[in-house]
Amino acid sequence: MFKKDKPEEVKKLAELMQKYQVIGILNMHAMPAKQLHNIRGDLKGRALIRVAKNNMIKRALDIADKPNIKQLKDKLAGPCALLLTNENAFRLARYLDKMKMPAAAKKGDIAKKDIIIPKGPTAHAPGPAISTLQKVGLKTSVVDGKINVMQDKVVCKAGEEITDDMVNVFSLLKIEPMEIGLDIVCVWENGTIYERDVLTIDEKEYLNKLTTAIQQAFNLSLNIGYPTKQNIELMLKKCFIEAKSLALEACILDKEIIGELLAKAVAEAKALEEVLPSLPKEEKPKEEDKEEKQTEEKKDEKKTEKEDKKENKKEVEKGSKKEEVKKESKEKQKKGKTKKDSKNKKE
Q1: Spatial contact of 72 and 193, defined as CB atoms under 8 Å apart
Q2: Which CATH superfamily is domain 104-178 in?
């Protein structure tokens, strides 16, 4: 770009900043032209990527009439570009992260996240490869004729520089720890500047936190008795259970709990029976004993009946004998009288 064209370019950049609601700074380090072209095509109609020198971007930021937008000047470092859009900044940042591609590491690259070499077998036989792996602190062993990494190891932390030994290990294990793509440094929206760590949200972690927050809010509303559409059914169930427990404790008679009250009374009676000293209990006659007793009673009844009949018979016989004696005495008396009468007549 010619020197005479720079003021016009700065003016265009400032006009674009006034036109869009969201303004971001992109890191263009090691960005392939082909991938940039593809991203621009995907974002057509949604966002505009404008590549310019940092000095020109700073001048445009000075001209732009927006609150706190000049703070973006401090974020310009290395090859940068402007991201201009009216879309949600978080949604756009998530899209750009998905568009990133893995790439091999080079000496001097800065790791954007921790680079971890996992434990497990490698495809290499014992030899010089063991010393190469051990230079970055990997613990190795030989299993089935192959080098085996014994435990996970963070060989480079986020923000650290990639060394020659690390590059050799990554090349040996065919690991591509770097990412090629548009990296959002920060975004300005309505006077607020959002850093990269705020924009790049782990969706799974966010959903887990949101789920936890909802559960905690639900439990809190339930425990303090704050009715809502979501908890009213469970709250009514809780109230019913508590009222039922109170009624059982106070022994309040109600048709809903009468069965449980009776069961409670039986259980308490059994417990009381176990605590009190054992009292002599009347032995219940068995069925056989009952039958024997009944037969004995019947025999006794028959015996008494026979005895009564005999006594009656004896009394009847005694009575008949007495009557016979009376009859005989009467007959004797009659005969005596007749003899006297006959004697008197003869005289």
Answers
A1: yes
A2: Ribosomal protein L10, N-terminal fragment, domain II (3.90.105.20)
